[in-house]
Amino acid sequence: MTTLDQSFAALADPTRRALIARLAEGEATVQDLARPFSISQPAISRHLKVLEDAGLIETRIEGTARPRRLKPEAVAELWDFLGQYRALWDVQFQRLDAVLDGLAAHEQGTPEKPKGGHDGE
Amino acid sequence: MESNADLRQLQVTQDGTTDIIVRRSFAHPPARVWRAMTDPALIPMWMASKDAMTRCEIDLRPGGSFRYEFGSAFYFSGPILSVDAPHHMSFIEYFNGDTVSGTAVTTDLVAAGSGTRMTMVMRYASADARAAAIEVGMTDGFDEVYDKLEAVLSAT
Question: Are A9 and A67 within one domain?
């Protein structure tokens, strides 16, 4: 896997995106990062390892503390930020179009169920 | 069915230091768009990629509240401020219950021909909060985006 592929894979997980969001506000320890989540510190550490392997964050050594921080150059390289944000909405509203089409079909008395992003329909 | 592709063209713009404005048209009347955007049985079908939203509750009235959970990873919740079906609603959105920095979201639906023009204004708590939201895109749906990106990457 190339670094770029690895970066995308690292960010495909919502918890890891939330961790990146937190780190965008400044460096933080594993304890700080784990606090808002209902999952364990070891689990958070594993997510951080994925982000670090992908080159998105780095660990600073300060005495016994190991705060993590974003590698801004890596993140900047990855995204056209507003373009990315826009793409998320684009996908969401395309799904909404499908739900609306399903509702319309349903209202017209056809037995078709509203369709959305769910499988098995 | 509407054939004009431009009609559905999404516009995302930044306004002032804290706002993001999302504009989009739909080929269905406001009442139907409103239903899809406010019915807790329908919201998870489009707001999240498949099965990502594990809980969807909305008490749609001024003074009511909503809660959208995405597994154990995170949730959005907050108070409903105003409701004027099927044209207008506003609410405050908190991430993981953090009421210090909420995002005020105002959605307006206006009939346009046989369809609907939507304007959604998201007012972040600060310029930094807006920047963080844009940088990370915590909105669900990333998985499909990722798939698309991956396809593009594979093709190059």
Answer: yes
- What amino acid is encoded at A100 in this protein? L
Reading chain A (121 residues) residue by residue, the pLDDT tens digits are 455 566 767 777 778 878 887 887 788 999 989 888 788 889 999 999 999 988 889 999 988 889 999 887 766 666 555 666 777 788 889 899 999 999 999 888 755 455 554 443 3
Minimal CA separation from B84 to chain A, in Å: 20
Domain range enclosing B31: 5-155
Which range marks the domain in which residue A55 is found?
Answer: 3-78
The reply to whether B49 touches chain A by the CB within 8 Å rule is yes
> Alpha-carbon distance A51 to A108, whole Å?
49
Q: Is A28 on the interface with B (CB under 8 A)?
A: no
**CATH label of the domain that carries residue B129:** 3.30.530.20
Q: What is the ipTM of this complex?
A: 0.76
Task: Quickly tell me which residue has 């807006």 as its tokens.
Answer: B130
Indicate whether A64 and A28 sit together in one domain.
yes
Decide the pairing of beta strands B19-26 and B55-58.
unpaired
Q: How big is chain B by its Cα radius of gyration, in Å? A: 16
The answer to whether the CB atoms of A114 and B98 lie below 8 A apart is no
Provide the chain A residues 80-99 that lie in CB contact (below 8 A) with chain B.
81-82, 84-93, 95-99
